[in-house]
UniProtKB/TrEMBL annotation:
Organism: Pheucticus melanocephalus (Black-headed grosbeak)
Membrane spanning stretches: 16-35, 145-164, 176-195, 257-278, 290-313, 325-345, 351-369, 381-403, 415-437
Entry's family note: Belongs to the major facilitator superfamily. Monocarboxylate porter (TC 2.A.1.13) family.
NCBIfam families listed in its UniProt record: 2A0113
Protein name, UniProt field: MOT2 protein
Record region (Disordered): 447-497
Lineage: Eukaryota, Metazoa, Chordata, Craniata, Vertebrata
Major facilitator superfamily (MFS) profile domain location: 256-497
UniProt cross-references to SUPFAM superfamilies, sorted A to Z: MFS general substrate transporter (SSF103473)
Keyword hit for Transport: yes
Composition-biased stretches (Basic and acidic residues): 447-474, 481-497
Location within or outside the cell: Basolateral cell membrane
Major site of localization recorded for this protein: membrane
Amino acid sequence: PAPAEAGRVPGPPDGGWGWVVVFGAFVSIGFAYAFPKGLAIFYKEIQDFFGTSYSEIAWVSSIMLATTYGAGECSCTSPGHGAAGAARNLHSGPEQSDQGSSSAFCTSILQLYICVGFITGFGLALNLQPSVIIIGKYFLKRRPIANGLAMAGSPVMLCTLAPLNQFLFDNFGWRGSFLILGAILLNCCVAGALFRPIGPGTALVKTQVTEEGKDALKGKITEDGPMENKTEEEGEKDCFEKVNQYLDFSLFKHRGFLIYLIGNVLMFLGFFAPIVFLAPYAKHTGIDEYSAAFLLSILAIVDMVARPATGIVANSRWVRPRIQYFFSFAIAFNGACHLLCPLASSYTGLIVYSSFFGLAFGMVCAMLFETLMDLVGAARFTSAVGLVTIAECCTILLGPPIGGILIDTFGDYKYMFIKCGAVMVLAGTFLFIMNYYNYRMLAKEEKERKAKEEDLKSVRTENEGKKNWNKDSIQDGPELEPLKEKGEGLKKEMNGT
């Protein structure tokens, strides 16, 4: 670029190649969210093959989901992560393909934990975060539309993977299915290749200028002698500042953030377990394999419609000012669906449950990050997401295995659904009450702030009035007129007039 344009940072194009980037994000986000849920089709057969319990097989999905959430910050730990994220995304495809190849030859459940849980979860984490972030670099005005299209990849992929996995299992077994799924995940390489960083020429010029500045600084240090004034405490401070740049720990002093964090950590104890055990539960009741897999497709189709519809409702002028209440209701509604699931004794009842579950699941997912941004603001949103996902990965890890333990102990799935429903109703109730308290405190603090501003304004006005009155009385007061006349007479006498 020309020297005059070398320092300019290009703005989001809001279109053009950005729509290709949205398609790549659609694929990456779809695999990242849908793949752990779609693998539940194989769990009953893998359980019979290895002779494991429900709690042991549930660790596969929980480890994968926890790694996906907990390792997400690894993909965004440097400035300019748009280009770096694209490069990492390119490498995550072969990594997940290796998972498909290696898991097909596993001889123990522990090897599945490593291959399917950790390796796949880490690859999905490297897919997810860059896909979400790069959309913000290509879109500004149309960003809600672009994000909505990209996030729709999750229900679309789940709707496709559920029957596909059952078809692959019937024809190739679970080992052959894992090989084929590993090859399918190589499409993440194509998605990563579509993520172009904006303004590569500008970045190159900036890099050259930075390197020249560093070389000049090194030469100056060599001539003038080494700088020894940087103490060990300053080095530690710089290290802490670098960590705090990506994870703002001052958020733990934020009342609204703490309420959101506690409620979400509690919610995730029962959020994913019903999806993991839905297809095995249907098979346990005597429903055939394809009908059981179709339940996940029904859930995904309803979820696909629920997410944009929830976004429209949440953005309305009636709901937007109190969106935290709407989020609390969505969580409690999700839990109520699970509490009523044991009443569904037939396939028709499970279809109804899957439909309501898809609606509730889509409502929660649509507002999960929007409510967080409403609390902490856009400037601290990235750090808040990192802290929340790190904290949530613990309960995500424990949720499905606890449900599996309940199934093993009582020999019935209904206690797992009751546990998940009760936990989510409790989380929704907690968030509703604490958000009511938070709104009351915010209104009180705002009232006190306005009262202080009015007091300061009145004091300032009163002081200015006194100063003006004193000034006017000194300059123009009628009691000083005789003195003025006497002074003029003295001046005339001194001048001899």
